[in-house]
Amino acid sequence: MATAEQTGLSLEPYQIVYRPLITEKGTHISMRYNAYPFEVNPQATKTEIKEAVESLWSVRVIGVRTQNRLGKPRRTRNQVGRTKGWKKAIVQLHDDDRIAFF
Fold it and tell me: What pairing do the DSSP bridges indicate for beta strands 79-82 and 73-76?
């Protein structure tokens, strides 16, 4: 898959970060390690994700880890299909910075 830089796209920060993932595991990671999980654009690179989070929340990002999540198999009556795959980014912040979603 081509990245946004290779295709010549320039994505805005709100087009890169779709939403924060508010889960029990994500909350634990944010409280213990000051790292926050997000669903991001599949074509975004780590540097683009870092810049987008820094500009949207005015924080300092130390590191970004990404995962390409595969869609799950789903079945309805006679048909077998898959849900859409997506990209997850775990963004670690500086010790002094926090993001408050609530």
Answer: antiparallel
